[in-house]
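Handout, page 2. Input:
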Amino acid sequence: MRRGGSLGPVGLVFAGGVSVQFGGALAVTLMPRAGALGVVSLRLLVAAVVLLLVCRPRLRGHSRTDWGTVVVFGVTMAAMNGLFYQAVDRIPLGPAVTLEVLGPLALSVFASRRAINVVWAGLALAGVFLLGGGGFGDLDRAGVAFALGAGAMWAAYIVFSARTGRRFPQADGLALAMAVGALLFLPLGLAESGTKLLDPVILGLGAGVAVLSSVLPYTLELLALRRLPASTFAILMSLEPAIAATAGFLVLDQALSALQAAAIALVVAASMGAVRTQVGRARPKRLEPVA
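Output:
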C-alpha cells in the first residue's frame, strides 16, 4: 500500500497526459470550423464554468499573495494554450508537442539538485529530437516559434500550479485561475470567430475539448504536484510526445515511423527512470524487528 501511494501521483500525471493529448487531437479537428483562438476561448471558458460550479471556491479570506499567484497562473494557462493552438494550426500535433516538452525538460535540469535527473532529462531530450525526425527544418518557422513559446509557458505552468495547489484547498485555485485565463482570452476568440462560437455543434465539441484538455488534466496535475517535486514532474512530461503521437495516429490518422517508435522507447525509458528515482527516494526505510 505504501508503494501504491508513492506511485499514485505518477498515475495522475499519466492519466492527465492521455486526456490532454486526445483532447488536443479533437481540437485539431475543430479548428477549421472555429479557428485556433476560438477553440482556445471555448476550452478555457467551458473549463472555467465547470470548475467554478464544481469547486465553488471561496472569494474571501485570501491574501494578496494568494490572488497574485492565481492571476499569474491564469495568465500562464491562457498564454500556454494560445501559443500551443497557434502551433498545431501550422505544424502537426506530434512535432508541436515534441517542441513544447522542451520547456519542462529544461525546468527539470535547472530545478533538480540530483545529478541522476540530468541523465534522465538528457535521455528524454534525445528521444524528443528523434521523435522530431532528428530536426525541425522542414516545419513552418512560426509554428516552431509558437511551440517553443508554449513550452516556456508550460514550464511556468508547472511552477505556478504547484504554488497554487499549496495555497488553495482542493482545486479552488485552479478554478479561479481558469476563470482569469478565460476572461483574458475571450475577446481574442470573439474577434476571430464571432458568432461561430454559438453554433451548437461547435459548442458541444468545444465542451469536449475543455473537459479532456483542461478540466481533467489540470486537476490531476495539480493534485500530483502536491506530492511530486517539480523536477520529477517535468521529466514525466517527456511522455507527452509519445501520447500525442498515439492520439495523432488514432484520431488524426498520423502513422508512426520506426524512428518515431525508437524515440518513444527512449522517452518512456527516461520517464521510468525518473519514476524509479522518485519512488526510491520517497520509500521509507524498513524497520528492523525488535528482539
